[in-house]
What does this fold into?
Amino acid sequence: MDAGRRFMTDTYRELPFEPAHLDLFGRYFRALAGSDGPVLIHCAAGKDRTGLLAALTHHLLGVHRDDMIEDYLLTNAAVDLAGRAPAVARQLEAMTGRPAAHDAVVAFLGVEPVYLETALDEVAARHGSIDRYLEQALGVDAAVRDRIGARLAA
It folds into this structure.
């Protein structure tokens, strides 16, 4: 695994547990349960925190893990990774004074199954299951789960 992919995998290993993310994720699920209207997720890149939140939401709805991963990978279809990588590499070099490897830029801009799988596996390892993480870390109890399910599965 190259440095870019290793960096992203390490990032996803910790992403579900960072205090700011725990707060954000908990507020998202409370908003999702407490609103009758649409809920919009704002995110800088729309792939990491957003991808994990979408996967956790899918989990609540009983979506199979393979389908979660397939949905997550649609991010790559929405972004011209190869086409955007050179411009991003130039921007990074201008900011840091160091050249950025093409593979590292592509790894950073895109998503790979191992990223989301790492986050979900780490959640299960630390909490015993994704359901226990949702309840213990994010406050998604049975009432919140039922309200989200009723809203989104209708």
User: Anything to note?
Assistant: The chain has a mean pLDDT of 90. The chain is about 75% helix and 0% strand. Residues 19-34 form the longest helix (16 residues).
